[in-house]
Amino acid sequence: MLAEYYLHLDSDGNSRGTWRITDTEAIRVGVPNAKAETNTYVLANDDEDIHVAISRLLPQWFGDNGADKLEKIVRCPQEYYPRIARPDASYPKESPGNCPGAKAIQSEIASTKAQLSRLTQQLERICQTVQPTSDNFNAFGHDIRNLLILSCTEIEAQWRGILVANGLEKNRYTTKDYVKIAAPMKLQEYSVSFPHYPWIEPVAPFSNWGKTDSTTQDLDWYDAYNAVKHNREGEFKRATLNTLFNSLAACAIIICAQFGKREAFGLHNLVSEFYNFSSVPKWLPSDVYIRHHVYDSLNEPHQVSWSSINFPFNE
Hints:
Blueprint: E1 4-9, E2 15-21, E3 25-28, E4 41-43, H1 50-57, H2 59-62, E5 69-73, E6 79-80, H3 106-129, H4 142-165, H5 175-178, E7 191-193, H6 220-230, H7 232-235, H8 241-259, H9 261-265, H10 270-274, E8 276-279, E9 293-295, E10 301-303, E11 307-308
Parallel strand pairs: 6-11
Antiparallel strand pairs: 1-2, 1-5, 2-3, 3-4, 7-8, 9-10
C-alpha cells in the first residue's frame, strides 16, 4: 500500500498534526525522530490492521473513549492547485487560506490589486453622486455602465487565468467553462458587505452559479453586463447601481479565492477596508494544503519545496 496522509483533528475540529499511514505503520509528519518520540509513531502487529493498531496504541485519542478522528487528505504534502487558495493543515478553519504558489506570480497579483483599487475608487466617486440606498439601487447611467463593463472584464480575466494556470486552455471561453471553478473554489459560499455603507445588506454574487444549465443567467449582474455591453440602447437600464455593487463584490471574491485575503488585498488600504467578507467557505479536512518539513542530522527543520498540480477541471 502506498502511503496516505491524514489530518488529526480534535473534538472541536482543530488540527493536532498530520499522519503518514501505510499498511503497517503510522508516523506524525514533521516531527524529528518521530519513531523515538511518544504518541508520534505506531507500528502494527503482524496481520493487524493499522487503524486498529492506532486505536490500541493511542487510546486517549482514537480508542473507544477518544473523541479525535483522522480525516484523509486528497493531496500529498507540499502539493497545491495553482491560483486556488485553501487553508493550511495546521489551521484548517482559517478560510479561505492562501495559495502557496503566490510568490511566483507577484507581478500578476500586484497588477490585480491595482486594478481592483482603481475600480473601487471609481465606485466611490459614483456613490458621491448617487447615494447607494435601496431607493437608488435601480439608478442607471453611463458611468455605472462603463464601470460594470470594466469590472466584469476583469472578472473574466481572472476566471481565464485560473483555468489556464490549471492546464485548461481554449481559444474561446464561455461561462460553461468558467463555471467549472465555482465548486472547487466554493465561490457560492462567499458573501461581501461594505463597511463604508453599513446599511447595504451583504451580497453573495455567486450564490446561484452552477445551479442550472443557464450559467450566464445564474449571475444576474454578469447577464446584465453582457446585455449592456452588446446593446446599450436597448438594455441600458440594466446597468444599475445594484448590479455594479454585485460585480465589484464578485471581483473581490474571485481575487481573494485565488490568493487569500492578505495576499490579495494587503492591509490598511482602500480595498482591504472597502470589502468585508461576511461569510467564507467551510472547507473539508480533505481539502487543505499540507506544509512539510524534513530534518537534518542536527534536527534543524527544512521546508520541502511546494509542487503545483493541476485541478482536474476537465474531468
